[in-house]
Amino acid sequence: MINAENLTKRFGKVDALKGLNLHVKKGSIHGLIGPNGAGKSTTIKILSTLVHANSGDVTINDIPLKRGISVRSMIGVVPETPRLHETKSARSELMFHAKLYGMPRKEAKTLVSDVIYAVQLEDAADRPTRGYSTGMKKRVALALALLHKPEILLLDEPMSGLDPVMRKQFKDIILDLKEMGKTVLVSDHDLHTVEELCDSVTIIQDGVTVVEDTIESLRHQTGSVAIELKVIDDSAMGGLGSKLSSLDCVTDVSQKRGWVIVKVRNPETDLPVVIRMASDHTGILEAKQTMITLEDIFLKFAGGKRG
Ligand SMILES: Nc1ncnc2c1ncn2[C@@H]1O[C@H](COP(=O)(O)OP(=O)(O)OP(=O)(O)O)[C@@H](O)[C@H]1O
Ligand SMILES: [Mg+2]
Predict the structure, then answer these.
(1) Architecture of the domain defined by 224-291
(2) What's the average model confidence in pLDDT over 127-134?
(3) If one looks up domain 2-218 in CATH, what number appears?
(4) Is the beta carbon of 41 within 6 A of some atom in ligand 1?
(5) Rounded distance between C-alpha atoms, residue 50 and residue 2, angstroms
(6) What does the H/E/C string look like for 144-213?
(7) Which of 187, 190, 209, 252 could form a disulfide with 40 if both were Cys (CB 3.0 to 4.6 A apart)?
(8) Do 2-218 and 224-291 share a fold?
(9) What residue's CA is closest to ligand 1, atom 13?
(10) Which neighbouring-strand residues pair with 55?
(11) DSSP-assigned states of every residue in 260-304
(12) Ligand 1, residues 40, 50, 201: which to mutate, most atoms within 8 A of Cβ?
């Protein structure tokens, strides 16, 4: 559905994108993650036709992005910093945009009410947006993106600054969009949220794609579960780590504050092997099993920089 190949973008002396690739499947929720300054917003702006890439190719629904107008009608965008006319209410802001799309007044009124309902903003819809909380403004931004019923939504940190309850409501709204058959590209720094929402992710760093795949496949590459072993002191740590690394079923061994962390792919077959080896080793105080998270995957591929 979205195919971006080898995108480059330079702002003055800054190379924001240096050959970025991004592929989003129709009907999926795809996460775009990476540290601050990695190029997420630049990528989303290029896909939204707000910024031109210096080179590279983008097709959306097999239509080259260069044919801006036909592509733009398929896309709804929540920008990183949405701008609202603060004296207008959400309803009149939405009506204003509906008219820009050329919708007849009666149809526009119905559609505006529908999107206000979809983003759960009915109670505040007729108050000026300057009195809105961050979460309410985010809802207006999402309503604006949904107004022309686009097939594809490009959401740049739509949940930043939201409290956990609102974040959960936003996640549900995004999952509903998927149910409706929409394709969603979403960037967010909260990897737990991305993991809950997304089918697949592209991890970017310094303007290039580090890896892109389904979360399931990335988990298979990284290991799906970890067993964490608390050791009595540092001297017990090294020997155990190297012994465990030599096992075929172990994908990774690391050490963190008195714990040895061992990752494996297949919990049923691999964990007993690890436990058997560990139980031969003196100096283990405690063992616990944990799931590999998207954060672990991110840290492996993005070299320890935070998302
Ligand atoms: N209009 C601009 N003028 C100059 N430099 C820019 C501009 N927009 C982006 N950049 C630079 O391009 C790089 C990528 O920025 P971008 O906003 O795409 O990162 P990001 O991944 O969205 O970061 P964040 O997580 O902080 O939102 C950064 O070095 C940034 O300073
Ligand atoms: Mg950004």
Answers:
(1) 2-Layer Sandwich (3.30)
(2) 92
(3) 3.40.50.300
(4) yes
(5) 16
(6) HHHCCCCCEEEEECCCCCCCHHHHHHHHHHHHHHHHCCCEEEEECCCHHHHHHHCCEEEEEECCEEEEEE
(7) 187
(8) no
(9) 16
(10) 8
(11) EEEEES-HHHHHHHHHHHHHTSTTEEEEEEEEPPHHHHHHHHTTT
(12) 40
66 alpha carbon – ligand 2 mean position (Å): 23
CA of residue 36 to ligand 1 center, whole Å: 8
Judge if the beta carbon of residue 307 lies within 6 A of ligand 1: no
Task: Using the atom order of ligand 1, give the atom closest to the CA of residue 45.
Answer: 18
Looking at the CA of residue 42, tell me the nearest atom of ligand 1: 18
Reported as a single tens digit per residue, the pLDDT across 2-40 is 999 999 999 999 999 999 999 999 999 999 999 999 999
| Cβ-Cβ contacts under 8 Å for 5 (sequence gap 6 or more) | 21, 56, 57, 58
Counting ligand 1 atoms within 8 A of each CB, the residue from 42, 43, 157, 298 with the most, and so the one to mutate, is 42
How much is the pTM?
A: 0.87
Give the residue extent of every domain in the chain. 2-218, 224-291
Is the separation of the CB atoms in 274 and 264 below 8 Å? yes
Question: Which pair of structure tokens corresponds to residue 24?
Answer: 């989003």
- Res. 78: pLDDT tops 90: yes
267 CB burial (10 A radius; 0-12, 13-18, 19+): middle
Per residue in 200-233, pLDDT (tens digit) is 999 999 999 999 999 988 888 877 788 898 888 7
